[in-house]
Amino acid sequence: MKVSIECAHCLLQRAVNQTKLATDDPELQMKVITAMTRFLADNLSADSVPSHIGTDRDLLVQRMTGKDPYAELKHQSNRIALEILPDLQRLVEESSDEASRFRRAALIAAAANAIEFDVSGRSFGLDELRGILERVEHDLAIDNVDEFRRLCQEVDEVLYLMDNAGEIVLDIVLISEIRRLGPRVIAYVKGGPVLNDATMEDAEFVRLADYADEVRDTGAAAIGVNPERNSREFLDAFHSAQLIVAKGMGNYESLTEFEPHCPIVHVMRTKCNTVAAHVGVPRNKNVVLIRRPRT
Fold first, then answer.
1. What is the pLDDT of residues 72-99, one digit of tens each?
2. H-helix or E-strand containing 286?
């Protein structure tokens, strides 16, 4: 997927927000944004992939400020999400049959891509969680959940590409249901800080290894899948995968750059017009979309 004209504003606005999070020094802030505008002038083109140029933006901010802007917010997101995990697990357990359990877990994973965990003092009650799930169902513009479940029953292993901190906790619910159907689940986090994406530090904090069969990293601080940055180990595992679950827009933006070699299940919310238009649904809708190899 390539950028649209709207991406220019988003790329620069996120750079401004990240810079403010990383430093209070107005002189350094201006230096970062000046460097960012030069970078975008030299590198943003119609052939740019949003997740790839977004990675370069994030790394530029980190290099110039010496900080991960999202470090504290990620910790807070994980902590809040862990507090509601038992209630989410109960919501799945109360489902009447296997198919209903899986559907509810998939909706929870979709909801995770929409919930803002990093709001100070945020708390969730069980009734609110039920309401969130109902809204996710209502806003499910592409519903390939049943097919997703069937695919899980046909493979020996699932490669699960995680997205954000906080969200990683809600993915535990879906990972558990996938494993219940038979396949092993290999969960992949980012190889270093980029955006608010989950890293191995986040995986350890939320004890992801207690739920997935293995937890690995992509070998790079890169949004989505980037063959030019990711480790050979990750790329080998990716290209030999039988089924891939890809959370979030960054994975969608990057994975649509090449034809899938196996089914890829995209679970996300269309938070921007560019992604929504590419998917073919309105903005702010949830999708569980399967992309298959061409036959």
1. 989 988 988 898 899 889 989 988 899 9
2. strand 286-291
Q: Measure CA 58 to chain center.
A: 16
Per-residue DSSP letter, 158: E
Question: Domains in the chain and their CATH numbers?
Answer: 5-65 (1.10.8), 71-291 (3.40.50.10880)
254: tokens are 């990057």
Q: Which has more pLDDT, 284 or 172?
A: 172
CA 264 to CA 38: how far, in whole Å? Answer: 36
- Start-to-end CA span in the chain (Å): 21
Q: How far apart are CA 148 and CA 102, in angstroms?
A: 9
CA dihedral 122, 128, 131, 137 (to 10 degrees): 50
pLDDT, mean of residues 249-275: 95
Confidence grade of residue 118 (pLDDT, cut at 50, 70, 90): very low
- From residue 122, alpha-carbon distances to 16, 88, 250 in Å are 24, 16, 25
Cα–Cα dist 2/16, whole Å:
22
Q: Which of 69, 74, 63 is nearest to 18 (CA)?
A: 69
Q: What are phi and psi of 224, to 5 degrees?
A: 70, -150
126 pLDDT above the threshold of 80: no
Where does the pLDDT of residue 145 fall: very low under 50, low under 70, confident under 90, or very high at 90 and above?
very high
Give the other-Cβ count within 10 Å of 256's Cβ.
Answer: 21
